[in-house]
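hey so u asked for the seq, here:
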Amino acid sequence: MTRSPASPLPPPKARRRLRESAALTQAQLAARVGVTRDTVRAWESGRGTPRGRKREAYAKLLNTLAEEAAARRARPSLTPEPGTAQSSVPVFVAVGAGTPGTADRAPDSLVLPAEPLGERGRREQDEPTEQEASAGEERPEGAEGAEGAEGAEGAKGAEGSRERGEPAGRGESAGRGESPRRDAPSEQSERRPEAEEHPDAPTRPHSGPSAGEAAGEAASAPGALTPAQAFDALYEFGAPALVRQTYLLTGRRELARESVERAFQIAWENWPEVARDPDPAGWVRAAAYEYALSPWHRFRLRHRHPEPPPADPGDRTLLNTLLRLPPPHRRTLLLYDGVGLDLPETAAETEASTPAAANRLMRAREALADRLPELADPQVLHRRLAELASAERLRAARPPTVRLGSERRARYLTRAAIAFTVALIGTTALTLRTAPTHYEPPVSPGETVRGVPPRVAPGSLSDEQLELRQKLRDQMQDGPERLTPLAE
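ran it, structure tokens below
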């Protein structure tokens, strides 16, 4: 009896890249194949290998994802359509979720999401798509039983977290094996309004790579966009929203633009690393936040005096309240309630543990609610942050200007390093040439000693002394006569 050859599979790292290129989570991929999330994680890490029908289904799904990725890379441009991007993506979102020209949009044309991005992302993952529904119908009975067990464990985890007084949503997400979602540190038990209450509000696309992932794919795909074109696409997509976020962090317009420009310059200097990063937009956002919150800016002359505040009194009060928060609390609040990151992602970007990030977030919300009670609702807080960020006209520099500035700075630093090295070598050579080769003890100054006459040089010789000296010189200088002179 002969066996049919097994379906070929790509390496584990390629499997993970294919899943990420399709913007699928491990849980979504597991639902399509009919296995658990831990099984998919083992397949992508190389600790396990699918067999039998699961291997065939997994190989077929990976082939489909590879074809979709190839089709996306074959597109002529990575920037979204002007008509579709503005209608489906909010203005104030993560760095990679903006649209070109967002910074020039007037405040009255601000498009706001119906609910914070983290809540929408969780609901979109909970609601299966048509492909997932069809995959669920063809799923074997064993997979359904496994998912039922996972659901029961998730429900138990959610009940246990509520009994222990943990933030809402943490136990439920832990039971599913996913990271806790947006309302983790919130003490409110009521969920935010569903999307049906806001039918006109835009929603985030369920699938498809973001601008950062697309730029990374374009930079790594052969025959696609050049590194400069991929960088320009990432900059045009993310810079406008990032300028507004850094403005909320610092309250200074010039510093916000400078921080974003400096972050993208660093990204261009390290472009191979940024292009291969799973989240290039997050890489640039972290660099911009670090530069904007640097404590050394307080010593600069132009930053010693505050800039003109916003014209609206409500915006002015909100901005002043934000600036009174400690920088770590302000950054955590902006990432969670403004950008819409999950709590673990916020903790990772702020280099803190998840409990520490939750504590910072709750303290920041309490400080805002004490001065502005209407911001106690996270939904209202998210909307007010978006309105405050869109109230100012903040323009980012052009991508070629940023790239040229980065290259100019790199050349300047290179020349400075070469000049410093040459000066150091010259100084070392001069020191070696002029330094003494041995030790010369110093001569002590003379001192007068009592009771001892000073040394006097001999005077002139007398006639007798001169005659004796001449006689000694005339005699023979060798022989026995020299040793035993004769008496005369």
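Residues 79-111+207-397 form one domain. DSSP finds 22 helices and no strands in the chain.
lmk if thats what u needed
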